[in-house]
Specification:
disordered N terminus, alpha/beta
Length: 309
């Protein structure tokens, strides 16, 4: 199965969050904001030779907000236009689980050639954690949000946009909801209700986790499974939004999605104040591919317009 079908499991003060989550979520999301040492591996790909961009790879040794690992190793590919000016905008890209794909590399190249400094977060420690313990989903959310915030802090970025695909979009949405440095956002097939996504998705990994959990914990129905999850999951993307940036937000929704169910995507769009929206009459993977192949240039122009105002 394509990595694009895989789902990411599911950070400064939270005074900007318009819809507060539970006290536990507030406490957890305030952790893990200070990056540690960074190791830089300078690379130059021949594919970028005529792009006018400089490409480098980085590993930031940050802090694991879940406290499970000694450090949070954040793997980043950075592309910057040359020459770079004081007003060059920054956009962070969050791909689906498994790291950046050829579509993400293409999107990064288009962004950079359009004059955008681009940071592609290819992965971080624990991003593939898949435990029967349902608290694994909160740990995933914490690490994803921390990876974004620690990256911004390390590079000294005070204003940026963020683009996320699939549940990478959920992390993007959550991060934008708690960090005011993220001032523009585009998501593709991102959902807001984590419980509904986990309980209803047909994504292979989530189906396996659901079946194994229901068997282990003697859960007979999907409703019992939702209740089981609700006792452990405190971080829900739709609880962390900043509708004041709705005018700088664009969401692409798949109208026939059963991986991140369409109603869950619409719910997140509503929580963000009903921003610009594009509906694609396709399923999950088809919408991801169509959006990044067809709308990449338009998305770049959207970020340029919103981040230069």
């Amino acid at each position: 199965m394509s990595l694009l079908l895989s789902v990411l499991l599911l950070s400064s003060s939270l005074s900007w969050a318009q819809t507060p989550g539970t006290p536990l979520a507030v406490e957890l999301l305030e952790q893990g904001t200070d990056p540690r040492n960074a190791v830089t591996d300078y690379q130059f790909s021949p594919l970028w030779a005529r792009s006018g961009c400089q490409v480098t790879s980085w590993t930031l040794n940050g802090t694991d907000p879940a406290g499970q690992f000694k450090s949070l190793a954040i793997r980043i590919k950075k592309a910057r236009p040359v020459p770079e000016t004081k007003g060059t905008p920054t956009v962070v890209i969050l791909p689906p689980t498994g790291g950046g794909t050829i579509l993400d590399d293409r999107l990064m190249k288009i962004f950079c050639e359009s004059g955008i400094r681009t940071l592609l977060l290819e992965g971080w420690t624990g991003d593939l954690e898949q435990e029967l313990d349902p608290s694994t989903h909160d740990r995933g959310s914490l690490r994803g949000v921390a990876a974004v915030r620690q990256t911004l802090s390390f590079f000294g970025i005070e204003r940026a946009g963020i683009y996320g695909t699939s549940l990478g979009g959920i992390i993007a949405s959550t991060a934008a909801g708690v960090d005011p440095r993220l001032d523009a956002m585009v998501t593709t097939v991102a959902g807001g209700n984590v419980l509904e996504t986990l309980a209803g998705s047909d994504q292979e990994i989530l189906v396996r986790l659901r079946n194994e959990r229901m068997k282990k914990y003697n859960l007979a129905t999907r409703e019992e499974y939702r209740e089981f999850l609700s006792r452990a999951i405190t971080i829900n993307a739709s609880d962390w939004t900043r509708p004041e940036i709705s005018a700088r937000t664009w969401m692409v929704i798949a109208t026939e999605d059963t991986t991140v169910p369409t109603p869950v995507q619409i719910e997140l769009w509503q929580h963000w104040g009903k921003p610009k929206r594009t509906d694609i009459a396709s399923g999950h993977l088809g919408t991801v591919v169509w959006t990044e192949l067809t709308y990449a240039g338009e998305i770049a122009q959207f970020f340029l317009e919103k981040l230069r105002n």
